Amino acid sequence: MFRKILVAGLVVCFSSYTSAQQCDDFTNVELRKLRSSDSINLCEFKDKPLLIVNTASNCGFTGQFEGLEKLHQKYKDKGLVVLGFPSDDFFQEEDDEKATAEVCFINYGVTFNMMSTSPVRGSDANPVFKHLNEKTSSPNWNFYKYLVSADRQSIQRFNSRVEPMSEELTTAIEKLLSQ
């Protein structure tokens, strides 16, 4: 009996692992989390809509972390995944990831996934933003938001001035979640 349970458990674990690693789109990438040695493969969020945001700790829009956290709390159980990508492309990010993490996690109480600091523009852009930039365009400033459908076929781009809890963004999210 124990052996059957053990084998069944291993099969479930292995099939969960392999399904999380199997996606054939731009999310098939392993990224390190902010101020952590842990990495995640974004395939883990296969079949879920994504809200991808380039962030900065010392920007006039940094207060949007609060709204992004509210979005995360409101829609996470409905399937939305919020992903933050700190970047110093506009010279408004801390030089030290510890300081970036403090702004995100301590000052704003962020609980959604934050990736390690990386470029989001140009030839050095991380693989996620390379794809987003090819399909739409590069962010012109911090806190650009990219709403990606669960099937990865649709990408909507929202500029920095679109607040996370705005009617424009929440309506787009709710439409995606209802599909």
The Cα radius of gyration reads 17 Å
Number of domains: 1
Measured as a percent range, the helix fraction is: 25-40%
Total DSSP E strands: 7
CATH topology name, in short, is: Glutaredoxin
Supply the CATH architecture: 3-Layer(aba) Sandwich
Multimeric state: single chain
Description:
By secondary structure, this protein is α/β, with parallel strands linked by helices. It has helices spanning 2-21, 64-75, 97-107, 127-135, 167-178, and strands at residues 30-32, 39-41, 50-55, 81-86, 113-114, 145-148, 155-158. Helix 3 (97-107) links the parallel strand 4 and strand 5 (113-114). Residues 4-20 have low confidence and may be disordered.
What's the short story on this structure?
With 179 residues, the protein is of the alpha/beta class.
Characteristics:
179 residues; alpha/beta; Glutaredoxin; five-stranded mixed β-sheet; two-stranded antiparallel sheet; 7 strands; globular
Write the layout of secondary structure elements.
Blueprint: H1 2-21, E1 30-32, E2 39-41, E3 50-55, H2 64-75, E4 81-86, H3 97-107, E5 113-114, H4 127-135, E6 145-148, E7 155-158, H5 167-178
Parallel strand pairs: 3-4, 4-5
Antiparallel strand pairs: 1-2, 3-6, 6-7
